[in-house]
Amino acid sequence: MTDQSRRRLVLASQSPARLGLLRQAGLDPEVIVSGVDEDAVTAPTPAELALALAEAKASVVAAKPEVKGALVIGCDSVLDMDGEALGKPADAAEATARWKSMRGRAGTLQTGHCIYDTISGRYASATASTVVRFGEPTDEEIAAYVASGEPLYVAGAFTLDGRSAPFIDGIDGDHGNVIGISLPLVRRLLAELGVAITELWAPREK
Question: pTM higher than 0.85, yes or no?
Answer without folding.
Answer: yes
